[in-house]
Amino acid sequence: MTTVDTHCPYCALQCGIRLGQKGSGRITLAPRDFPTNRGGLCQKGWTAAELLTAADRITTPLVRDATGELVEASWDDAYARIVAAVRSAQGAAGPDAVAVFGGGGLTNEKAYTLGKFARVALGTSRIDYNGRFCMSSAAAAVNRAFGLDRGLPFPLTDLAGADAVLLVGSNLSETMPPAVQHLSGVRSRGGLIVVDPRRTATAALTESDGGIHLQPVPGTDIAVLLGLLHLVTLAGDTDDAYLTRRVSGWDAVRAAVTMWWPERVERATGVPVGELRAAATLLAGASPSAGGAGAYVLTGRGAEQHAHGTDTVTAAINLALALGLPGRVGSGYGCITGQGNGQGGREHGQKADQLPGYRSITDPAARAHVAEVWGVSESSIPGPGLPAVQLLDAIGQPDGPRVLFVHGANPVVSAPDSDKVARKLAQLELLVVADFVPSETARLADVVLPVPQWAEEEGTMTSLEGRVLRRRRVIQPPEGVRDELRIWHELAQLLHIPVQFAATPVEVLEELARASTGGIADYTGVDVARLDAGEGLHWPCPQVGHPGTPRLFLDRFDTADGRARMVCVDTSPVDDDVRPDAPIYLITGRILQHYQSGAQTRRVPELLRGEAGPFVQLHPVLAARLGIEEGDCVRVTSTRGSASGMARLSADIRRDTVFMPFHFPGQGAANAVTNPATDPVSGMPEFKVCAVRVSREWVS
Ligand code: SF4
């Protein structure tokens, strides 16, 4: 039996697994002891090997023929189509006529090379990725406050010693079950506070432990956070010595928060004053300045996926700073990253406004450094492009993209207002999709390029802790499949680009490390041999031999004066609020069995048996009012579109709100309903508050 230690292909927890194979037999999978999962795996992880035998695996390029069908083609034919379309589009409308849409599941090496391919080989500014939909608002808020964005600036295991954890908009029990073990200490002390409009599995755990569940109106978590800060301030529980020494902006924030007295917060959010006071007391009592063992404020997509997501996260950070938590061992603020390489995906140049090393694309010094590594002139690197929603929306406009490359993403299911996205893609002169299965986006493509999947590739990933890890190849990909690094290398040659595109992950990591030197996400000291020798390295790792940096900000924040920046937040009403013709809130999210657009997990029979299709969770009182019974088919409609699913009645959700998982396409596509309004700072769409009407479609 040959065994290989690697990591789960799905979420940012990157649980450690061991894959085994006897001869050419079936791949076996078992959890292994790794700091984030300590031998635990969720159902998705346990069944991940089944993906390797997906029945509809793509093993040859596909091109759309004259009849409109996708038919098998040679690699030469597929490349010829692509090169001709790129030349034609750019000849007619300039470099930005070609755009690139990446993914937070690509390895660091692929994320880096995709950014370089877009800017050097295609010469386009128009590159962005699906991480824009995931946690871009947290990234923007953290950068604004601390000058450096790493999801968790401390190891996950640090949570164990805290007396309180405030978890805003994260259902860890379903999205990352092995992570819940790190909350066992705080749970045993009754210190977990969950903010969620649903009584999720995580909220239920909290209640059973004597913790607190605050259940606000969707979109009002920002008011809950302001109310908590108001109470902490009023009670004199702020860490004034810390605020004086380590924070700027406190005076303005303190003055602004007086507007959020508890009764006002109760009116705005529906959270009773007593519960708000209990949460503030619990959190403040756990903070070190009050003699507690420590406290954390953590946010997830529920807090972040808003058109005011950056300010909601900023309100969470302000609360943590007022209590003196960030930059202290045993306390802090962190964001629970979602996608497997959501962290690394945004560090190496896939984002519209960033270059490798998490550098700003408008910073002349950063541009000069990266240009030298790439062997191009600084002036040849395009400026900032468009964030994901705007990039997709520009298709069909006179100066919009005419050719689009999609790598590691399925925007037809994952983007807001998804039916419109599908209509936009149909207007392209050429849509190129690289994937290993026919995702909903691949089915619309003009050229489909078959690529390896997780256990067939080598590279590195960066987990939610900023820990760089090895993804190891266990089996060779099927014949006919080509690695993306090779594809970009070959396309660059066919486009006659006089710049080297490394085609092996080791070469790319070495180049990536050089490109990151001196940047925020500094990988200079990261190499394969060091990763192989241990359990990964936390960036920044600025020199060869550097031990990595598990905990950030202990002495100073990454700002010019070393202080964290508090910023006053905008509390304008949500973009698409309920009204007589759309009187109910729709919120969306993940469920235990599925991941992201479901393109992978819907191909795993065991997961599909666990949850086969879309559902609409609604309160029995709301259901009775609408004449809906358990199992009826329910239609949820907004001004953008509609989706349907089986009614699932539950008292765990507010009476003014329905919930749908976003993993399903077609009639059950929750994102056909969601709102593409975006956060002005981060470009994050408003996934989490959507005014809808709900009706019974047919009876079960
Ligand atoms: Fe995989 Fe995430 Fe589940 Fe761990 S928690 S097994 S990384 S999906």
UniProtKB/TrEMBL annotation:
GO terms for biological process: respiratory electron transport chain. Keywords: 4Fe-4S, Iron, Iron-sulfur, Metal-binding. InterPro entries: Asp_de-COase-like_dom_sf, MoPterin_dinucl-bd_dom, Mopterin_OxRdtase, Mopterin_OxRdtase_4Fe-4S_dom, Mopterin_OxRdtase_prok_CS, Prok_molybdopt-oxidoreductase. GO terms for molecular function: 4 iron, 4 sulfur cluster binding; metal ion binding; molybdopterin cofactor binding; NADH dehydrogenase activity. Pfam families: Molybdop_Fe4S4 (PF04879), Molybdopterin (PF00384), Molydop_binding (PF01568). Residues 1-56 form the 4Fe-4S Mo/W bis-MGD-type domain. It comes from the Bacteria. One of its GO terms (cellular component) is membrane. This is Molybdopterin oxidoreductase. It comes from Flexivirga endophytica. The lineage of its organism: Bacteria, Bacillati, Actinomycetota, Actinomycetes, Micrococcales.
